[in-house]
Amino acid sequence: MKKLILLPVFILFLTFFANAQEKPKITVEGISEMKIMPDEALITISLSEKALTTAAVTNELNKKSKAVADALKKSGVTDYTFTADNYYVNINRIYTKGTAKDSGYVASQNLRLVVKNTEKDLIKIVETVQQAADMAFQLSFRVSEEKQKSYQENLLKDALTDARKKASIIAASFELGNLKPYHIDYSSSQPFQPVMYRAEAMMMKSADTRTEPTFNPEEQTVSDRVKVIFTFE
Q: Could you give the residue ranges of the DSSP H alpha helices within 133-198?
């Protein structure tokens, strides 16, 4: 019976002792921000073709894709990557007055061009593709993976420096003791999203009516944040 009475007292003592040992803390949020320029361009070309058979529609779509690839090879530009994805062949179903009618097939595919030189090479590639075939395209500027890693590291360092600076100001203002990091809560949320520049239809034009395109990518603002808990004595 005595054991049953002493056990709750012993647990209460341990809880009080643990709370008494807990050090006071300061929680701050470090924030960093920088402006960066995109260092590569992404051109997404949408191809589509209709025909009565799957073989015919596939053949016609392949011709368009090959025309773009051949034109790029002849352009003289070498610092780019060219890939094809999202290839689909569906029934060309036409709806008229509540009724559906199948009329052959429609095939679609996306071509992706990543251009490293956003000045001279980009202009040349856009002009080359314009003359290859009639198609729709989207042009966006983005930060390369190599640059993203560098920016992420610098953003985190600056955010941690900001957190320590804020904690030091608080500690000095209230005449607290030496600060020591106790807990760091961080999960990078920086998306580095591509910035859309143009979306339009590329049409073949004669040499006397075609003008050289101009591109002016803008700076992107990127930021990061980290929560740090400091203890002090």
A: 145-173
- 63 and 132 belong to one structural domain: yes
Residue 188 phi/psi, 5-degree rounding, is -60, 130
Kindly list the distances between the CA atom of residue 190 and the CA atoms of 63, 98, 124, 161, in Å, as whole numbers in the listed order: 40, 47, 32, 18
Evaluate whether 44 touches 108 at the Cβ level (below 8 Å).
Answer: no
DSSP state, residue 213? -
pLDDT in tens, 197-209: 765 554 444 444 5
HEC string for 27-84: EEEEEEEEEECCCEEEEEEEEEEEECCHHHHHHHHHHHHHHHHHHHHHHCCCCEEEEE
pTM of the complete model? 0.73
**26-to-45, 118, 157, 176, 180 alpha-carbon distances in Å:** 53, 46, 20, 10, 10
Q: Are residues 91 and 56 in the same domain?
A: yes
